[in-house]
Amino acid sequence: MTLIKPLKLQQGDMIGIVSPSSGLAAIVPHRAEQGVKILKNLGFNVKFGKNALKECGYTSATPKERA
């Protein structure tokens, strides 16, 4: 197996946020906002996935959406 080492993130790069298991980003949005603020202060762009801020009971979304 060959080890693939990704390039170091650079300022201006996009960081995508997903939440495939827990719906905590929707339940405590101030925590997600705080994380985004920190990443932006470091010079990164931030984008949330389509279902990243959803909440469906104790999970982030329906099984189909999480897949």
Walk me through this protein's architecture.
There is one protein chain. By secondary structure, the chain is α+β, with helices and mostly antiparallel strands. Helices cover 31% and strands 12% of the residues. It has helices at residues 24-27, 29-41, 63-66, and strands at 14-17, 45-48. Strands 1-2 form a two-stranded parallel ribbon. The two termini are 27 Å apart. The relative contact order is 0.25.
Could you tell me how far the N terminus lies from the C terminus, measured between alpha carbons in angstroms?
A: 27 Å
The counted number of beta strands is 2
The helix/strand order is: EHHEH
The quaternary organization reads as: single chain
Number of helices: 3
The mean pLDDT is 85
As a percent range, the share of helical residues equals: 25-40%
Please compute the radius of gyration using only Cα atoms: 14 Å
Question: For the largest beta sheet, what order do the strands appear in spatially?
Answer: 1-2
| Low-pLDDT regions | none
Q: Tell the overall outline.
A: flat
The largest sheet is:
2 strands, parallel
Structural class: alpha+beta
Beta-strand content: 5-15%
Break the fold down into its secondary structure elements and pairings.
Elements: E1 14-17, H1 24-27, H2 29-41, E2 45-48, H3 63-66
Parallel strand pairs: 1-2
